[in-house]
């Protein structure tokens, strides 16, 4: 491993391991660099400058200016590089001069004007763009709900998602060992399987929600002026991500996020391009004469409750059918706290309580057991 202490921002930006850290989600690299920065905190500014150089150099699109203007722009940047060179010779890895042009442009105020004036549109962290980039890493499954009030999706790790009408969800066919990532446009309620070693990220247009295991709702329709995240159980972090690059920074913990606790919500205003700072307590109207209508309001808490009532609640909530022997199993009592569990975990714990087991047959939950009498 190199001795990074004497490195300048330019030398960091050309180091293979540094570049790998900036552009990937490698936990080993993340751990190394975070520990290194804790040891040498006075290098943080230089490291941040180098990180921006790497991001710009790898994300800068092909220029669309006339050749004469491109040549003039390059030459002005090269002149700036030459003027900033130290008198002694510095040995650096071989790079194209255009790479260094991009790096210097990242630090110039004029770059912002040039970039936005010469591109047809800004690359935003929108669903289609995020999914397109994700296909370079994963084989994705896309599910769309056009007709039903909610559609149940069970993810590869056992997490359950209730996808609302008019929404789309894309997720990998399997999650890797380091991270779980899914992509949403529209609205969905999530119950995430607990796995402290693999954080779970929901990319919803211009925000990123990070959890380890909890339940929450995300509303992020493309035509809405606001994106909302509401937490039912557990704790989540919500990050603003105006671009795919910012979404990546959320994964590597280099963005400031808002921490939400149960019953809280946060709103991202697209017009203001920021998360609203007033994270408020989400109040639920008293139930009194009515029954809870949405899963966000429901409590899956049972005290000597007949399993038939539990199965009935699960059927209505998740729009599934549960087949079992009502005479043999229906009156078996269950005492359990299942509010913070995804569907399959609810089924597993319920069946364990009545000494039964379940399996999925042709999209139907089939429960078998000897009964409790």
Automatic annotation (TrEMBL):
Gene3D superfamilies: 2.60.120.1440, 3.55.50.30. Residues 148-236 form the FecR protein domain. GO terms for molecular function: sigma factor antagonist activity. Residues 300-367 form the Protein FecR C-terminal domain. InterPro entries: FecR (IPR006860), FecR_C (IPR032508), Ferrdict_sens_TM (IPR012373). Transmembrane segments: none annotated. PANTHER family: PERIPLASMIC SIGNAL SENSOR AND SIGMA FACTOR ACTIVATOR FECR-RELATED (PTHR30273), PROTEIN FECR (PTHR30273:SF2). This is FecR family protein.
């Amino acid at each position: 491993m190199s001795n990074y202490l004497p490195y300048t921002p330019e030398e960091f930006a050309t180091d293979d391991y540094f570049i790998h850290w900036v552009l990937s989600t490698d936990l080993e690299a993340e751990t190394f660099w975070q520990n290194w920065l804790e040891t040498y905190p006075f290098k943080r500014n230089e490291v941040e400058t180098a990180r921006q150089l790497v991001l710009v150099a790898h994300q800068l699109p092909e220029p669309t200016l006339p050749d004469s203007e491109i040549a003039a722009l390059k030459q002005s940047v090269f002149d700036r590089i030459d003027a900033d060179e130290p008198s002694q010779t510095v040995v650096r890895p071989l790079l194209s001069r255009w790479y260094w042009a991009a790096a210097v442009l990242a630090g110039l105020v004029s770059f912002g004007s040039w970039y936005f004036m010469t591109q047809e549109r800004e690359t935003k962290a929108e669903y289609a763009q995020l999914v397109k980039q994700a296909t370079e890493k994963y084989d994705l499954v896309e599910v769309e709900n056009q007709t039903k009030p909610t559609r149940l999706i069970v993810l590869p790790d056992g997490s359950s998602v209730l996808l609302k009408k008019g929404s789309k969800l894309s997720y990998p066919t399997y999650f890797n060992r380091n991270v779980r990532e899914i992509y949403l446009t529209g609205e969905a309620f999530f119950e995430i399987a607990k796995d402290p070693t693999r954080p779970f990220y929901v990319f919803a247009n211009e925000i990123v929600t990070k959890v380890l295991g909890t339940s929450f709702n995300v509303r992020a329709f493309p035509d809405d002026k606001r994106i909302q995240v509401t937490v039912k159980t557990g704790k989540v972090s919500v990050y603003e991500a105006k671009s795919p690059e910012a979404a990546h920074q959320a994964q590597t913990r280099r963005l400031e996020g808002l921490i939400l606790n149960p019953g809280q919500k946060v709103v991202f205003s697209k017009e203001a391009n920021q998360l609203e700072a007033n994270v408020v307590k989400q109040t639920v109207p008293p139930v009194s004469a009515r029954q809870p209508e949405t899963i966000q309001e429901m409590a899956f808490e049972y005290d000597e409750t007949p399993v038939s009532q539990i199965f009935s609640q699960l059927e209505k909530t998740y729009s599934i059918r549960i087949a079992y022997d009502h005479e043999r199993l229906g009156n078996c009592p269950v005492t359990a706290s299942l509010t913070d569990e995804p569907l399959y975990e609810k089924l597993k714990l319920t069946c364990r309580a009545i000494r039964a087991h379940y399996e999925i047959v042709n999209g139907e939950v089939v429960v078998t057991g000897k009964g409790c009498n």
